[in-house]
Amino acid sequence: MGNQKLARLENIKIKTQLRMVFLFLIVIPIVILGLYSYILARNNLNAQTKVSIQGGVNVISNGLDNNAKRESDVLKFFSYEEALRYKIEHAKEDPFSITEEMTDNIEPLIWYFIGSDSNIENIKLYSEFLEQSHIGEFISKPTDETIKKWYEKCHDEYDTMWMVDDDGEIYIVKALLDVNTSSKVIGMATLKLKKDNFFSIINQSSYLNNGILLIDEEGNIVGQKKLNDEALDDAVIQDIRDEKLEKDSEGFVVSDKYFLLESNEISNGWKLYYYVDRNEMVADVFSLLSSDIVIAGVIFIIAYVIATLFSRRLSYRIIRLNDAANEIKRGNLNVRINDEGKDEIGELSDSMQAMAIKLNDMVEEINRRNKADLLAKESDIHYREWLFDFVVERNNDILAVVNVENYTCNFITSNAETVLGISLDTLKEDVRSIATAHKAEGADRLDNIIMSSIKSGEAIILEEIKFENVKTGEQLFYRGVVICTYDDGGKRMAIALYDRTQEIKRNHQLQEALNAAETANKAKTSFLANMSHDFRTPMNAITGFNLLIEKHADDPDKVKEYTHKISLASHNLLGLLNDVLDMSKIESGKTTLDIKEMAIGLLLEEINSVISFQAKAKDQEYIVNIEEMEHDMFMGDKQRINEILMNILGNAIKYTPEGGRIEFRIKETPSSSEGFQNVEFTVKDNGIGMKAEYIDKIFDAFSREETGATKSIQGTGLGMAITKSLVELMGGTIRVESEEGKGSTFIVNLRLKAVDENDVDFWKGHGISTVMFVTENRTQTEQLRAAFEADKIEILDTKNGFEAIHAIENCNSAGKLVDLILINDILSDMTAAELIREIRSKDRRNNSLIFVMAENFAAIEDDAKAAGANEIVQKPLFVSNLKQIFEDITSRAAGTDNKEEVVNPLQGMKFLAAEDNDINADILIELMNMEGATVTRGCNGQEVVDMFKEAKEGDYDMILMDIQMPVMNGYEAAAAIRSLETEWAQRIPIIAMTANAYADDVQHAFDAGMNAHVTKPIDIKVVEKTILEFKQ
Fold first, then answer.
1. Band of residue 288 on the pLDDT scale cut at 50, 70, 90
2. Does 312 or 908 have the greater pLDDT score?
3. Which residues form the Response regulatory domain (predicted)?
4. Residue-wise burial string across 510-522, b where 16 or more C-beta atoms lie within 10 A, e elsewhere
5. Is 675 helix (H, G, I), strand (E, B) or coil?
6. How do residues 611-645 score in pLDDT, each as one tens digit?
7. What does the alpha-carbon distance between residue 621 and residue 664 come to, in Å, rounded to a whole number?
8. CA–CA gap between residue 188 and residue 84 (Å, rounded)
9. In angstroms, rounded to a whole number, what is the distance separating the alpha carbons of residues 428 and 494?
């Protein structure tokens, strides 16, 4: 019992000691310091503020006054300049004097003042006595409205005036008076101040957060330094303008919001107002009180530390026990309490230790049971998450749960980023960003629909939503629902978008198929309407002339004439069919290109041989120009390029009247693609031309401009459509320029891969080591020269006949032979024929080959050949043309040697032919019999295969295979023959003979095992040439 009383007594003593420490060390000093600071601030705040402001006001007003006087004196200086004033007054009578005065005296002074006084921005003089609008930079007539107003005011006030313009700029204005009476205003001087420099003393003055106002005589604010509180600045200005200031005798104002001191008027009439925020001043005064509080706080901390140490010494065991209790509360049930005391505190420590051990055992048992339950629930959750992800990842449906307050996504399926091309972070941050991929406008946009649903709280069902993937541009179609709902977190929005892309695409495909079918049906009708007349015309000719042949069968001359016309009509009909088939092939996308090495020179030779003949028949001038052609060999489809150019040139011939002019230009330029060159073909004529509105339609199928000049010209209107399609298939461009009545220009640009080849062996094999050129125009033969130089061929250049003869004489003297001489058809000193005769007379061995390069064969051919020329070659001349000529010469020489030995190349040959059409079979057998060959016919592929199996090696030399046949087609028959295990089946040549004339048809034939491909209708010369290539 005594111990309990003692403990209570000790507790009371500890509390009493702590109260005394806090009372004497903290509370009493704080109260004393606070009272002292309050009294001090109360008595001294207004007086200290007034004294502080007065010092600043005196400094600023004196500084501004000095600046004002100095700048006024500068301006007055100009008003005292009698010479200036006199010459301004007489400026109209003697303008030169005022110009001289300004240049020699006034302008240097102005520049001096501007350069030496940082407050001056500019000085200008104005006078209405000037004849001109201005003289130099610093004097002019008053034209600006503000200047005019100040000028008028000078008539009433001669003294210095301080003005402010509409932009807030400050000027000093002084009237300029006449010299004699000083009573007449003859001008005005103005000085513009640099405000930043002039008022710099205001900005440099700083007392706490002070404000300064400068107000002129008219109440305008000419200078101001603002406080951090704009509202207080506005209140001060309003009180000054409303004259609400309650000033003492020294101009000091004490307000609830501010302290203000008004200065005496400055010499230029301005007044200075200096003010500070009262609250800031009070805060400054009471900063001393804050310092006292800080000191008291430090004392409090020291006292607290002392009290803590003192209380720990008295109650150490209780603190340890309390710490143990806190550990148990935090869940640390393994805490150990070491208290060796035997009193009540010790007993309490033992009881708490036992309780901790018991609780620890209970917690371990609970954790064991919870862990088992948690594992089971986690397994179920993981399965559900996996199942959800599995379903979502395998379709493009999008689900989202949205916070209606800020449009952030609490959840959104991860496939949204892949489907829409919008990052998940962007969608999660604001679900309305999904509208970026939504192809809709206004209220139909998905972001507006989402906001509308949140506002109304109603579910919105969207039957069709069109999205476009932001990254890939893929079109997507969805059905969706937007609905607001509630959960534990409050109001939420659910968005469900179900993918209908495949369904919509299938519907679109069905619709497109339907539209295509309707279009195809209309195209058939249009085709028949467009082609009916063109097909009937040659068919009518064929049937008509057949009747005439029957009637005049006994007249050979007429039969020959009629058969010739039937042949022409047949070729015309074949051309029509080829155009239609080409167009059909192009439109179906089945046209392929046969890319291989091609020579521009040989291409031109083929084209020129046809076009020059047609142009000559119409008495047209046909000119071929080659510009900057570096290469001759390119990779390209020669047949298709030939078709393109023949179409364009053929049209130029048709639509250019007799006596017209057609120019064909070829130009090579570098391409941006390595290894490729741009080859530009230009066809220009001076024919009938086209109307501007028809130029855009010229490449449409079945399109022709129907005019009086074109009605007599036959054509399907397919040629240019085919041409454009082929050009685009090659990756090129075609454009047309035309003017009605003046002609047309077609420009085709193709990007072709250039082939560089040196062929020294070719020239050596033909005995060519030295070449002579006889021409004044080097550009025509530049490409030939480069090729010869690359092949190490020696070149002799001569400009005319005399130089050529002299060079040949030198070669003869040196014992050197000129192997090839290329002579231009036009020379300056003699004709080409005369030069050839001269060369032949000096070259007794007659070993030199002489070629004449001519544009017009007919004009020179007879004379040149008679003089001894070996060949007449068409300009422009390419390496490929030259090589072909040498090959032809070699072939003719070989043919001459063997002429007596060869009777008929097909004589005695035996053919197995597959042909299901009786008429075609009769024609083939008759043509082959005419050549001395025999033909055994099979009516389909299967018959031919069976006949070949039964035959012995040597029974047939070749197989001629039709393609489209019943039972078994030609491809299958050729493959079946090649599959036989005999050496003869592998070796015997098989030649396809079919109307399928496209590149992929040729490839199909090769793939089936055939050796060559000949198109119908049959040209016996082509058949013979092809057969001879494989004759064994």
1. low
2. 908
3. 770-890, 910-1031
4. eeeeeeeeeeeee
5. coil
6. 887 888 888 888 888 877 778 888 998 888 888 88
7. 11
8. 12
9. 14
Task: Write the CA distances from 623 to 638, 652, 781, integer angstroms.
Answer: 22, 12, 17
Do 868 and 946 belong to one domain?
no
Report d(CA 911, CA 914) in Å as an integer: 10
Q: Report the mean per-residue pLDDT for the chain.
A: 78
The CATH code of the domain that includes 425 is 3.30.450.20
Closest CA to 135 of 110, 105, 100: 100
Given 499, 525, 546, the domain boundary residue is 499
Does a structural domain hold residue 324?
Answer: no
State both tokens at 955.
């029974």
Rounded Cα–Cα distance for residues 21 and 13 (Å)? 12
β-strands 958-961, 910-914 pairing: parallel
Q: Greatest CA separation found in the chain?
A: 168
pLDDT digits (tens, 9 = 90+) for 727-786: 888 889 999 998 888 899 999 999 998 887 666 677 777 778 888 888 887 776 777 787
> Does some domain include residue 966?
yes
Classify burial at 6, counting beta carbons within 10 Å of its beta carbon; exposed 0-12, middle 13-18, buried 19 or more. Answer: exposed
**Taking each helix axis from N to C terminus, what angle separates 638-654 and 600-617, rounded to the nearest 10 degrees?**
20
Q: Is 823 helix (H, G, I), strand (E, B) or coil?
A: strand
Name the pTM for this structure.
Answer: 0.43
Q: Which residue has the higher pLDDT, 300 or 918?
A: 918
With contact defined as beta carbons under 8 Å apart, do 17 and 314 qualify? no
Angle at 1019 between CA 1013 and CA 1021, to 5 degrees: 95
Count: domains in the chain: 5
Q: DSSP string spanning 63-99?
A: HHHHHHHHHHHHHHHHHT-HHHHHHHHTTTT-HHHHH
Query: Is residue 956 domain-shared with residue 1011, that is, in the same domain?
Result: yes
Q: Tell me the C-alpha distance between 871 and 865, whole Å.
A: 7
Same domain, 862 and 813: yes
Confidence band, pLDDT 50/70/90 cuts, at residue 9? very low
Both 493 and 543 in one domain: the answer is: no
pLDDT tens track for 129-140: 888 888 888 888
Query: Does the structure show a pLDDT above 80 at 155?
Result: yes
Question: 525 and 492 in one domain?
Answer: no
Residue 322 lies in a domain: no
Query: Are 772 and 791 within one domain?
Result: yes
The better pLDDT of the pair 759, 601 is held by 601
Residue 923 maps to which CATH number? Answer: 3.40.50.2300
Which residues make Cβ contacts (< 8 Å) with residue 38, sequence separation at least 6? 289
- The answer to whether 464 and 446 are in contact (CB under 8 A) is no
Rg of the chain over all Cα atoms, to the nearest angstrom: 56
First-last CA distance in the chain: 142
Rounded Cα distance, 1026 and 1032, in Å = 13
Say if residues 198 and 69 touch (Cβ distance below 8 Å).
Answer: no
Residue-by-residue DSSP string for 524-539:
HHHHHHHHHHHHHHHH
Structure tokens at 918: 């009786």
Q: What is the pLDDT of residue 914?
A: 93
Neighbours of 73 (CB within 10 A): 10
Question: Are residues 493 and 483 in contact, defined by beta-carbon separation less than 8 angstroms?
Answer: yes
Taking residue 175's Cβ as centre, other Cβ atoms within 10 Å add up to 22
Q: Which residue has the tokens 């007379």?
A: 841
Say if residues 1006 and 970 touch (Cβ distance below 8 Å).
Answer: no
Same domain, 860 and 975: no
Burial class (CB in 10 A: 0-12, 13-18, 19+), 243: exposed
Place of tokens 């101001």: 224
Q: Is there a domain that residue 575 lies in?
A: yes
The sign of the torsion formed by the CA atoms of 604, 610, 612, 618 equals negative
Residue ending a domain, choose from 894, 927, 960: 894
655 and 749, same domain (yes or no) = yes
Determine the structural domain holding residue 972 and report its residue range: 910-1030
What's the order of all strands across the beta sheet hosting 271-277?
Answer: 221-225, 210-215, 271-277, 258-262, 252-254
